[in-house]
Amino acid sequence: MSFPSAHANSIHSVCGLALKVNMPSVVKVCTVLFKHWRWRVNEFASILPADERECARRYHRREDQERFVITRALTRHICAAYAGLEPHAVMFRRTSFGKPYLATEERACHRKIEFNVSHSGDCVLIAWTEGGPVGVDVEAVEPYRRVSSTEIASSAFSADECAVLSSVTAEETAATFYRIWVRKEAVLKADGCGVGGPLKSFSVAVWTPVGTRWLDEVSFTSSDRVWSIVDLTPAPAHVAAVAVPLGAIVEKCNLFPE
Q1: May I ask the CATH class of domain 140-225?
Q2: 3-class DSSP state for residue 115?
Q3: Which of 63, 127, 209, 257 sits 20 to 30 Å CA-CA off 78?
Q4: Residues 166-196: pLDDT tens digits?
């Protein structure tokens, strides 16, 4: 994995690949496809602490166990590169709202690294920066949901977003629903309150007579913050979004094994 050098000030290694550390105004968003990394599951499991290995074992399906291990291990590798540590030495903590953060950064390198992770289907997104909070969400699009998307929208979407969902054709409903959902989730995760936050209190899209307007900036009233939203298509049949502080530069990349 290599990054453009314009905003880099040093180089580390992630899983044997070059990693250029970005300046504070840059947010990296990396796409990982599980199918490319399954052959390293046993190696990755060896760097996880006992509690994370136990969490992996609780999944009933082997593929879910592998996804958990790969996601945690690659997140550790990236954070370790920034903190100047071995991956097994990285320590994570969670805020009172459940958002994970790197607990070793201050002691190790005097730098505050923010990161966020999301996975769905065969895809995981890892976002990281030194420029402030970041939130990311990805969903595999399921055209036929067991639970009606309109039912979920009525309890989670704003009036503007419900109007957008009602305006599209049946064929467009699933993609529109997921696009609204990942944008809202990214904002909530960036703000630090997660899915339990006030979903209906803000809008990421509005209906107009000429079509849907997807908002590039969103005001989050509960914290008085304004977030910039960038849409992503990390893999076929997946939609995603990242929420970053205003003025941040989003750089996308893909992480492949050596």
Answers
A1: alpha beta
A2: strand
A3: 63
A4: 999 988 999 999 999 999 999 999 988 766 6
Strands 249-254 and 26-33 come out as parallel
Let me know: does 108 contact 91? Beta carbons within 8 Å.
no
* Gap between the Cα atoms of 70 and 210, Å rounded: 44
Q: Which residue has the tokens 């939130």?
A: 135
CA dihedral (181, 186, 191, 193) in degrees, to 10, reads 50
Pairwise CA distance, residues 248 & 58, whole Å: 38
Residue 92, phi then psi, degrees to nearest 5: -110, 150
Q: Within 10 A of 149 (CB to CB), how many other CB atoms are there?
A: 18
The confidence score (pLDDT) of residue 39 equals 94
Residues of the chain scoring pLDDT < 50: 1-13, 16-18, 21
pTM score: 0.85
Angle formed at CA 14 by CA 8 and CA 15, multiple of 5 degrees: 155
Alpha helix segments (H runs only) across 157-236: 159-167, 170-191
**Domain boundaries in the chain?**
8-138+241-254, 140-225
**CB proximity list for 247: less than 8 A, separation 6 or greater:** 25, 228
At residue 60, the pLDDT reads 94
Report the alpha-carbon distance of residue 253 to residue 248 in Å, rounded: 16
